[in-house]
């Protein structure tokens, strides 16, 4: 694969491992979002994931015209890739 490829299978490493901001789109794995958020200083990953799924994050994002979408599903939430997109 050529350097600079936009293939979503590339490791997402631009901000922290598992998070990429490219062409105005934030792409992430749940583990990457956990690391980026700083929650790892306060709670464990499993607790973070449960809190995220219980939250109203998509509603709050919709108020400013965005939502979280699945970019690439692997069938497992921990290895799938998500993105924040305009509605």
Please summarize what this structure is.
28% of the residues lie in helices and 24% in strands. The chain is an alpha+beta fold and 87 residues long. A hairpin with an 8-residue loop joins β3 (66-72) and β4 (81-86).
Explain this structure to me?
The model is unreliable at 1-5 (pLDDT under 50). By secondary structure, the chain is of the alpha+beta class. The protein has helices spanning 30-37, 45-54, 57-62; strands at residues 19-22, 25-28, 66-72, 81-86. Strand 1 and strand 2 form a beta hairpin. Strands 1-2-4-3 form a 4-stranded antiparallel beta sheet. The longest helix has 10 residues, at 45-54. The termini are far apart. The radius of gyration is 13 Å and the shape is globular.
- Order of SSEs: EEHHHEE
**Strand arrangement, major sheet:** 1-2-4-3
Tally of DSSP helical segments: 3
C-alpha Rg (nearest Å): 13 Å
The helical percent reads: 25-40%
Approximate shape? globular
**Total number of β-strand segments?**
4
Largest sheet: 4 strands, antiparallel
Q: Which strand-content bin applies to the residues? A: 15-25%
What do the pLDDT scores average to? 84
Quote the distance from N terminus to C terminus.
31 Å
As an assembly, this protein is single chain
Structural class assignment:
alpha+beta
What is this structure's SSE topology?
Layout: E1 19-22, E2 25-28, H1 30-37, H2 45-54, H3 57-62, E3 66-72, E4 81-86
Antiparallel strand pairs: 1-2, 2-4, 3-4
């Amino acid at each position: 694969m050529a350097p600079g490829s936009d293939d979503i299978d590339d490791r997402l490493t631009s901000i922290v491992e598992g998070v990429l901001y490219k062409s105005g789109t934030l792409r992430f794995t749940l583990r990457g979002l956990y690391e980026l958020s700083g929650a790892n200083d306060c709670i464990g990953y499993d607790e973070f994931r449960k809190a995220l799924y219980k939250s109203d994050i998509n509603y709050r994002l919709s108020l400013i015209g965005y939502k979280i979408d699945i970019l690439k599903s692997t069938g497992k939430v921990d290895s799938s890739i998500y993105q924040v997109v305009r509605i």
